[in-house]
Amino acid sequence: MKSITKLFRVGPGPSSSHTIAPSNCAKAFKRLLKETNGKITVTLYGSLAFTGGGHKTQDAIIKVLDGYDVTFDLKPFEPTEHPLKMIFEYHSLDNTHSFKNTYYSLGGGEIASPDDIEVNEPNIYPFKDFNSIKAYMAENDIKTVKELCLRFEKPSVDDDLMDILKDMFKSVEDGLERKGQIITNNNPRLQYSRCAGDINKAAKHIKEQEAKREMLITSFAYAVAENSAAGCEVVTGPTCGSSGVLPSVLYYGYKYRGKTLEELRDSLYVAGMIGNIVKQNASIAGSIGGCQAEIGTASSMAAAAIAFVDGNSLYQIEYAAECAMEHFLGLSCDPVDGFVVIPCIERNGMGALRAYNAFLYAKYIAPLRTNKVSFDDVVEAMKITGDSLSDKYKETAQGGLAEILKNKNTHC
Ligand code: SF4
Hints:
Largest sheet: 5 strands, mixed
Shape: globular
Structural class: alpha+beta
Mean pLDDT: 96
Number of domains: 2
Order of helices and strands: EHEHHEEEEHHHEEHHEHHHHHHHH
Number of strands: 9
Low-confidence stretches: none
Bound molecules: iron/sulfur cluster
Strand content: 5-15%
């Protein structure tokens, strides 16, 4: 299990696996080049080839490899050992030497390579799952997830998480301010004007308190998700596609529930550990496990974070995370025309509201009955479900809403 800070990477949207990771692969490959010119062919496989256009994969790579003659070879249908595979191949201008490296995008911006081993991130936790974490905490009389993390993380982790929290809030506030169209293609269904600020203004006038809370949280989730879709900087949580979920509930806690930055920073230890467990035992990438892996995981992380900030027990925190994920099981990833707009922006709002509801169940139902499904159970179910989902529902824009609304030339 890796550092929890790796769940929260700052980078440009719209996709951590299809934008940040390819950009990181290009940076890794570039650092190995002695020449500042020459030809580079980048072969993109599977989902990266299917939806790279809408996810700005090629733009992200070209930007890093400025000065080189970059061409792309797209192989969407070729079977591969990994669903998010890229091969970078360099040829010098005089054709005297060449070399190539294979890279994989693992989800959330992380990359790995069998050829360039320095990019492979080390494990720092000796745990497999939530049960092993709880057992270690009990054996060592550790009371909180933060206390546990401080035994394994760098000494700067508290400051690093505070910076991450502030970056999340910056993204919410920035998204509420921005106006205008998100650039997509000429599909009329994908013409999208930012509306987070308008939702927020309308929410402030809602009299009914529950509805007001839900629409405020929605506006914060939209603000970040719209930023991500527009290619602005966001914090993965655990991915760009799902980056609106966690910040929205934390920002609501800060602005409307009087929670302190320190309390909210500490909730990132809990959220990060939940994301880490999913990442290690299933996947956080829509192209590997469907949207349950992105929005489902984000919702679990957010539910656990709210439960922590509200002062619930570790059992209730687990209940909240489990409950949020359980009811997203099987959720497909079907971004229309490969743009992270429909269903993604709205789905961030729903993921945030589901997180809040899961927290309420954990707070009020957990004391009345024992949850029969553990967090590890639901992660295992998610992995099995993701493995058996058709590729049509794993970020290839071939099924579901992507199939129905593909290039539809009529306005709804
Ligand atoms: S449908 Fe879900 S997993 Fe797929 S791109 Fe959108 S937010 Fe990400």
